[in-house]
Every structure is written in structure tokens, then in C-alpha cells.
């Protein structure tokens, strides 16, 4: 009989974690597991990738024949009908038999009436349009499916509270996507979302403020450390500079240098100071452009951070 715990090296289906390691083997950063993939939150190293197939499994009993029928896709808020609507085919029936010409015309009429009766109100039709727009935005921003579902949930809540009336659907959809990024911990700036959305940045900002006020969003506060990976990915720099920039971000947070300052400016200063110490050729204008701040702000935060590190 084994003396160890049965789940010591097993797979936990609740969180998708497949390893017992608590820190990154490269940089010592914290690990995050999502969808069966365990990766470092600082350097992005993927330590484990083991996914579970949650599809339906055919049931079989001793006194009955095996049932090979499968259920459909799981219910998801990312679709206006939650993915449970029926779809009428075109050329073949359920058994794979080719339909005759008369049957095709009949099926075409069925499909036309089915599309007309799919939405019982204009509100549902607008929800279908919003779900398609959310899917487009999340795909353009390269966001995971969890953000798409969260944004769809926010839009449904806003629609049920009558927050859509008098406002643009495109602006409210972009605000929901940005809110899903803020609540999910994904570092997407509001100008990045506005760049791919069919609305201006001011309309997006107004709608996000409305959602934050009425729905009580639990948005995560961005820190210099959470914004650093986006900056590090934009420049070809050695790993030692990346680790040093992460250390400087921790120093800025612990010393209070980042208090009352824009996190993007502090993150840009951390990267510039780390590159200066390693004698890497990075310009202030390039770093400030990627961080979405000005070179003047970068120099101010750089001076404060350099004075703080000099005392240590």
C-alpha cells in the first residue's frame, strides 16, 4: 500500500493543475494555471500543458446496448442563444443521404423561416450582433475564450439593466471587452481596444465608466510588474535585463515610488534603468512609445528609481 497521498502527482480537475511546483524554474516567479496550461506570470515560460477533454462520454450498461450518441457543445454565454439553437442543413440529411432537388427547396424555406423566428424581439437581435462583435474584438486582440465569455456576460447584465438604450452597441461591446480584460488581469490598454473597435476612445471610456458604476466591476489595479511583460516582449533584450527590470518593479512598489504615479511610466523607467545598467542600446522615446507614456514622465520616474536603488 502506498503511503503517499493519492493526489500528490495526479491531475486536479478543478484548477487544471498538473504539477506540484509553486515557482518558475527559470526566474523564480509565481505560476498561474489556466485551461490546463501552467505558465510563469513574469517570464511567460510554459512549464506544463495537459488538457482534459470535457466532452460527453458514451454510456454503456450491462443489460442495454451501448449508446454512442453524443451531446452538443457546452452552453456558453458567448452566443446569443447560449449555443443550444438548432441548425438546419443544406445538402444532406442526418444520415448523410443526399437530398433531392425538391427536398432542398423545402429545406431552404425551412431555413429561411427558422432564421426569421430565431429572434423574438429587437433586444435579442442586438444581443446576437453584440456577441459577434465581441468575438471579433477578442480575436483581434488575441484574447482567450474566457475573456470572450466574461465580456458577453457583462453585456447581458448591461442589457438586462437597460444600460444599452441610447448608446452605441459597438461602444458598449468595446467597453465590455475592456472590462473583461481589467477584471481578468490581462494588460490591454484602452487605446488598444479602441484601435480595433468601431467607436472612438471617448465613447469607450464613457461606457466603461457606466459599467464600472452600475455593475460594480471588480477591476484589478494595474501595477508596474503586470505591465512589464508587454514591454519586454517588444524589445530584443537579454534575459538578465528582463530579470533586473522585474526586480526594479518590485523595488518601486515596495519603496512607494509607484504610489500616485501611472504604472506604465514606472514600468518604462524600470526597463530603461535595467537596460542602462546592462549597457543595452534602448532609447527613451522607443520605450515610452510602447508603454504609452511620454519621455518626460519616463525620465522623472527613472530619476526617482535610480535614487532609490542607489540607497540600497
TrEMBL record:
- Provenance organism: Natronoarchaeum philippinense
What Gene3D superfamilies has UniProt attached to this entry?
1.10.472.170, Cyclin-like
- What is the name listed in the Swiss-Prot or TrEMBL entry for this protein? Transcription initiation factor IIB
All residue ranges annotated as the Cyclin-like domain in the record: 132-213, 226-307
What Gene Ontology cellular component terms go with this record? transcription preinitiation complex
User: Which intervals of the chain are annotated as region Disordered?
Assistant: 61-81
Q: Domain of life here?
A: Archaea
Q: Which GO terms describe its biological process?
A: transcription preinitiation complex assembly
The record's PROSITE patterns line, in alphabetical order, gives:
TFIIB
Q: Which GO terms describe its molecular function?
A: TBP-class protein binding; translation initiation factor activity
Task: Tell me its family.
Answer: Belongs to the TFIIB family.
One protein family per Pfam: TFIIB
The entry's keywords: Initiation factor, Protein biosynthesis, Repeat, Transcription, Transcription regulation
Q: Is Transcription regulation a UniProt keyword of this protein?
A: yes
Q: Which InterPro entries match?
A: Cyclin-like_dom, Cyclin-like_sf, TFIIB, TFIIB_CS, TFIIB_cyclin
Amino acid at each position: 500500500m502506498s503511503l503517499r497521498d493519492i493526489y500528490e502527482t495526479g491531475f486536479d480537475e478543478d484548477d487544471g493543475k498538473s504539477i506540484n511546483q509553486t515557482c518558475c524554474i527559470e526566474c523564480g516567479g509565481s505560476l498561474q494555471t489556466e485551461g490546463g496550461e501552467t505558465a510563469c506570470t513574469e517570464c511567460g515560460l510554459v512549464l506544463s500543458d495537459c488538457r482534459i477533454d470535457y466532452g460527453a462520454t458514451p454510456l454503456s450498461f450491462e443489460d442495454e446496448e451501448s449508446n454512442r450518441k453524443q451531446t452538443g457543445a457546452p452552453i456558453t454565454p458567448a452566443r446569443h442563444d447560449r449555443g443550444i439553437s438548432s441548425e438546419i442543413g443544406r445538402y444532406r440529411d442526418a444520415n448523410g443521404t443526399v437530398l433531392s432537388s425538391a427536398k432542398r427547396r423545402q429545406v431552404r424555406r425551412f431555413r429561411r423561416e427558422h432564421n426569421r423566428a430565431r429572434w423574438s424581439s429587437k433586444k435579442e437581435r442586438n444581443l446576437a450582433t453584440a456577441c459577434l462583435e465581441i468575438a471579433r474584438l477578442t480575436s483581434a486582440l488575441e484574447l482567450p475564450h474566457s475573456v470572450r465569455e466574461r465580456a458577453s456576460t457583462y453585456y447581458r447584465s448591461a442589457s438586462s439593466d437597460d444600460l444599452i438604450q441610447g448608446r452605441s452597441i459597438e461602444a458598449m461591446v468595446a467597453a465590455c471587452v475592456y472590462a473583461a480584460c481589467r477584471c481578468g488581469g490581462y494588460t490591454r490598454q484602452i487605446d488598444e481596444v479602441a484601435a480595433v473597435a468601431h467607436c472612438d476612445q471617448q465613447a469607450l471610456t464613457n461606457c466603461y465608466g457606466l459599467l464600472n458604476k452600475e455593475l460594480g466591476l471588480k477591476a484589478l489595479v494595474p501595477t508596474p510588474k503586470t505591465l512589464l511583460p508587454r514591454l519586454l516582449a517588444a524589445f530584443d533584450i537579454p534575459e538578465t535585463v528582463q530579470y533586473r527590470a522585474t526586480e526594479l518593479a518590485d523595488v518601486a512598489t515596495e519603496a512607494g515610488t509607484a504610489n500616485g504615479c501611472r504604472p506604465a511610466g514606472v514600468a518604462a523607467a524600470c526597463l530603461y534603468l535595467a537596460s542602462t545598467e546592462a549597457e543595452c542600446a534602448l532609447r527613451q522615446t522607443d520605450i515610452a512609445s510602447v508603454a504609452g507614456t511620454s519621455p518626460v514622465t519616463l525620465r522623472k520616474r527613472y530619476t526617482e528609481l535610480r535614487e532609490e536603488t542607489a540607497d540600497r
